Predict the structure.
Amino acid sequence: MQFDLRRFIASGRAGWEQTFDCDLSGRDFAGARIDKPVTARFTAQAAGGDEVRMTLRASASVHGECARCLDPVCFDAAVQAEWTARERDLDDPDFELPLNAAGSIDLDDWLYQEFLFQIPGVLLCSSDCPGLCPQCGRKRPCSCPAAPEPDAQPDARLSVLKSLLN
């Protein structure tokens, strides 16, 4: 969805509000995903002079796998972004919102960026997840002895990790 910020500033409108659905299922969240469309709420209000105060709010269910044990992880993430823009910002190449040359903000891209900030780079099922056993490859705690035997062969599935150390 596009919001014509340049036209909004020029018209001096009192306010604008829009609820829209955004499909983020095809976007990359570094191993996490948002499977269902997100309903977002966007508002823009004149804040005096040529200033515009914009807000973007949404929540979504995020899915992925634990980085330590590979169990499914699901949690809710919420976006509550506020931004103030001026007419001079529209020509600034360092303007941080996804703005095209015509002065329109891509609200779908802005929503995607905000969810990127909310979703951790490493997903964990719990902060104290023990991970997988290097001997048997099962989720810890397992029935393996605490210290591996000196001549014990490691799990073949983990042999690629040893090759990285050499």
Observations:
- Strands lie at 2-4, 15-22, 38-46, 52-65, 72-85, 104-106.
- The two ends are 51 Å apart (CA to CA).
- The first helix runs from residue 5 to 11.
- The chain has a mean pLDDT of 88.
